[in-house]
Design a protein that fits this description.
It is a single chain. The chain has 10 helices and 12 strands. By secondary structure, it is α/β, with parallel strands linked by helices. Strands 2-1-3-5-6-4 form a 6-stranded mixed beta sheet, sandwiched between helices. Strands 9-8-7-10-11-12 form a 6-stranded parallel beta sheet, with helices on both faces. Strand 8, helix 7 and strand 9 (169-173) form a beta-alpha-beta unit. The protein is globular and about 55 Å long. The two termini are 30 Å apart.
Length: 267
């Protein structure tokens, strides 16, 4: 029996137990997966309690991904470069921290949506934790370049420096985005949460694949993409399911089928 959970605050809305229950049914693995609400300053205590009760592993969502990064005793390269952990596996006395967010995004784009990222120009809006978490898996797909545009240019430039060894990146302010098409635009800003759209040149969306990391509702970014002739417009539900599938595989060694789960959630 795998004793698993997701930690967050808030956590009531989490779809993770539903997703992992379907994965367990598919693979024939016995899984117990709970939602755990941790106090804002009490993640370590709650996580240790769960480990003492026989945890196999757990997921971590907002606002504890940095706490989990510091709590883990060993980090994968994904976790190190992301500077955040969303999955921990208990291996004896070791707590192995992984970040499956970027893998989830790439798997959704490549496997589910049939997008080949090799030699493509990718524009990411935002230079916060979400962007840091997806950069390494994107660069592993050998795009022509990944451009990071942010309201504060220095944050984008910092990420460019941090990831330069993994591929061709550049960082600049949102106002520097050219009025010419790119292949893929990823909205990793929190603007969608506030019902806003970053103020950027419209021409970059023409014929582009536009992907919003937010899911569950039509966002201003998706409306903007439609108004500016994007070739494909996607929300982040596929990424959510795929990052969960990568976590499940990290714990159990079994890769679940994500298609049915996504269909069920869309319904």
């Amino acid at each position: 029996m795998y004793n698993l959970a997701v930690f967050g605050n808030p956590i009531a809305h989490s779809l993770s137990p539903t997703i992992h229950a379907e994965f367990a049914q598919q693979t024939g693995i016995e899984v117990n997966y709970d939602k755990i609400l941790a106090p804002i300053d009490g993640f370590n205590h709650k996580a240790q309690q769960f480990i003492d009760e026989g945890a196999t592993g757990f997921n971590i969502t907002v606002p504890f991904k940095l706490d989990a990064y510091n709590f883990a005793t060993k980090l994968t390269l994904n976790a190190k470069t992301a500077g955040a952990v969303n999955t921990i596996k208990v291996e004896g006395s070791e707590l192995v921290g992984e970040n499956t967010d970027g893998i989830g995004l790439v798997n959704d784009l490549v496997n589910n949506l049939g997008v080949n990222l090799k030699d493509k120009t990718i524009l990411i809006l935002g230079a916060g934790g979400a962007t840091q978490g997806i950069l390494l898996p994107l660069l592993k797909e050998n795009p022509k370049r990944v451009m990071i545009a942010n309201r504060t240019a220095s944050k984008a430039q910092q990420l460019q420096q941090d990831f330069a060894q993994y591929g061709n990146t550049c960082g600049f302010g949102l106002e520097k985005i050219k009025n010419e098409p790119v292949d893929v635009i990823i909205n990793a800003t929190s603007a969608s949460l506030d019902g806003k759209m970053p103020n950027i040149a419209n021409g970059c969306a023409d014929g582009a694949i536009c992907y919003d990391l937010m899911y569950g509702k039509q966002t201003p970014f998706m409306d903007w993409a439609k108004a500016n002739n994007a070739s494909m417009i996607v929300d982040g539900l596929g990424m959510l399911v795929e990052q969960a599938a990568s976590s499940f595989e990290f714990w159990t060694g079994k890769k679940p089928n994500t298609q049915k789960v996504m269909e069920n959630l869309r319904r």
